[in-house]
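Aim 2, interim progress. The first record below pairs a target sequence with its C-alpha cells.
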Amino acid sequence: MSSALVPALAVFALLGVVLAVVDVRTRRLPDAILMPGGAAAVLSLCAAAIGVGEPWRLLGVAGGAIGAFVTCLALHLARPASFGGGDVKLAGLCGAFLGWCGPEAVASGIAAGVVVGGVAAAGAVLAGARGATIAFGPFLVLGTWWRLLTGPW
C-alpha cells in the first residue's frame, strides 16, 4: 500500500465510524453526513491514484462505486423496508474504495457486509426480536474494511 493512499483511508475510516454510530442510534444514514463526507473520501482516493502515478485506478474506483450502488439498489427495490436508500449510497462509497483493489474486492467486500448483516438479522429473529430492525451501514463498512485489510493492493 502506498503512503499516498493513507489520507483517503483515514477519511474513509473516520466517516465510517461516524456513519456507523449514527446508523446504530437512529437507523438512518443522513445525506448531510454521507454526501459531503463521501465526496471528500472519493476525492482523496482520486488524488491518491494520481499521486501514485496510477490514474487507471480511477476506472476501478468508478466501476466499483457504480457496481456496488446498482447491486444494492436492486436489494433496496426488492426490500425497501429492510435495505434503505442510505445503505445504497453507502454501498456506492464502499464500492469506490473496494474498486481500488479490483472487481473481486468489490464483490467480496459488499457480499461480506450483506452476509454478516443477514446473520445478525437472523440472530435477532432467533433471539425473539421479530419486529426489531438492525442498522445495516456498520456491516457494509465492516465488510469493506475486512476486504481492504485482507486483500492484495
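The second target in this work package is listed in the same format:
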Amino acid sequence: MIKARPLPAEPVLIEASPEELSALAARFGLGAVESLTATVALDQRPRAIRATGRLHAKIMQPCAISGEDFPVTIDEPVDLRFVEENQRAPTPDEEIELEADDCDEIGYAGEMFDLGEAIAQTLGLAIDPYAEGPEADTARAAAGIVQEGEQLGPLADLLAGLKKD
C-alpha cells in the first residue's frame, strides 16, 4: 500500500516475499513463481497518479501442450494510472477524450492505493496462456496431433514418396 499524499520521491521497489510468491503461483495456476520484483516511479498528475517502471519475474509455467512446467522469464513495462474514485463522473451528454495512457486506470478510495495488487495484476496479464515448453513437439507427436502444414498417415506417406527430390 502506498500513501497518495505525499508520494515517495524515489522509485518504489516491490519484492514479493516467499508467502506472496506461493500465493501468486496458486492464483495464476503456475507451478511456481520463483521471484517477482518491480521498480516503479510515482508521479502526481492533475487527475491521477502515474506509475511507470518495470516488472521482472521468474516463473514455472505449465506447457499448453504437455502440461509440464518450464521456466519463463518475464520482463514487462509498467504504466498505470491510479485515479481517485470520488472524482466527478461525466454527465451522459459530456464528451470524453481518452488518451493512450487512460486505458490502464485503477480506481482507489481513501488516502492509500494498492501498488502491490496492481503489480500482481500486471504479472497475470503478462503470462502467455498458450506458451509451449521444450517438450511440446514430443507431446504432440505422442498424441498424434497434426501441426499446421504437416500431414500424417498413409496418404501423407504416399504423397511424400511421389515428391521429386
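The chain has four helices and seven strands. This observation will shape the mutagenesis plan for the next reporting period.
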